[in-house]
Each structure stands twice: as structure tokens, then as C-alpha cells.
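Input (Selenate ABC transporter substrate-binding protein):
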Amino acid sequence: MTASRRSFLSAGGAAALTVALGRRAMAAEDLRIGFIPEVATTPESIAAKQPWVDYLQQRLKRNVKLIIPTNYAATVEALGNGSLDVANFGALTYLKAQARYGAKPLVQRNEDRHFHSLFITGDPKIATLKDLKGKTFAFGDVNSTSGHLIPAQELIAAGIDPDKDLTARFSGNHTNTAIAVASGQVAAGALDETVYRKLVDDKTIDPAKARVFVTSHEFIDYVWAARKDLDAATVDAVTRAFLDLKDPKVLAVVRATGFVAANDKEYDADRVVAKRLGLL
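Output:
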């Protein structure tokens, strides 16, 4: 064997070893996945996500650490500072993470391509958005798409100035909004349609005390995104894990029927609205 051939084989072996060690190191590290706190964060709500975590761990063959930051803005910052590798954002929080930190969109639920905000009330006299003038009203988080951005857009289009015509408050998440309306703390509120349906199905709220009176226009909402410097192998593996997921019990954890690939341009309409309302 020539010296050059021995050198080539030696270099090839070293490269293969480096790749193998790199994969082993990647597998040894936790994959940190976060959710915006769209629903109330309780021990029960965290435990309910365990089938989702189990699926990802089995599929990716590495430990998955679930992290739910204290609010929407904290989720954006966590992806930006590297505390999270992948996060589930609403459109507005994704747009902020993309603009500030170069977040990369991966996938979205089938449902996210045709999404709606729901306006709910327990007041029988409220039938249209114009009826909200002078009333108390609950948005979700200030950075929520379906709980603030789109509802504000709809209200303004109906001639209602959220700052002047409502006594508005931010509840922090969709669950809190629904409970505030159902309990009579506020006259009305707006929230994510999938959260509303789940709260009704789980009997957390009585739909008679928090009935839907207006449904927003259709828009694109949530997306799973990765931090900009997450390695390509992990990005690909996570994306494939989402796209291949078919188990209805696991999909139900994230209120989904399936996932499709996402791209940044799909969020341009939300981007325009967010800039117009001074939220981006």
C-alpha cells in the first residue's frame, strides 16, 4: 500500500470517527423545545404534553426537555439567546423571533393554514363588534396573534378603537380569557378557536356563558421554528418527526390533525398587520 493511500484511508477514518462522535454528542444533549404559554400553565397542562415529548424522544433518539416560558415575549427571547432549540410560536411571536434573531420556520399544523379568532360573550345583548363599545374586554397576551393582533384588526375595521372604546385588559393566555368571560369578569373577549373548542370539550367553560358571537377572517397562525444556528441534521430530524406524525393521541396534545412544511412568506399578511398596528 502506498504512503499516499495509507494517508487517504487514515484521513477518511478520522473523518468518519469525527462524524460518529458528533452524532453521539448530539444524541447526548437535551433538545430543548418550548411552547408559548397559550393556555394556563399548570402541572396538569404540562403533564398532558408528555405523550408529545415521548414521541419526539423515541423518534429523535435523544432526550427532549420541555420548557414553557412565563409569557410570549420570554419565549421569543429564549429562542434568541439559545435557551431553546425549537419553539412553538403564534404568528406574531414568530415574526418577532424571525426579525430579531433569524428564527427558521419548520412546520405548521394543518389547522394553522386556515385559522380564526373567536369573539365570545356571556351578555345576551352583544351580537356584533359594534355592541362592544363601552364594554369591558379581554385580550390574551399582548403578543398573541389570535388573542390580540387579529382581534384588534377586526375591532378597528368595525369602527371600535380598542384603546378608546373599550375597557380592555390582557389576561395572559386564551384559557384566562375564556374563564374571564364565562365568569362575568368581562363582557367579552377574543381567543384561539382551537383552545376554545378544547375548553368546551373538557367542560372547563360552559358555552352558554361564553358563546361565540363573531368569527374573524381567516389567517395563518402558529408555526414551529428553530433557532438560526441549530445544526442542519437536527433541523431535518425534527422537521421529519413532525411531518411523519400520524398518531391521533399524540396529535391531540397539540390540537392538530397533522403537520405540513412552513415557510416565512406565508406570514407576510400577518407581518403587514403587525407593522400597521405597531406590534412589530
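DSSP finds eleven helices and eleven strands in the chain.
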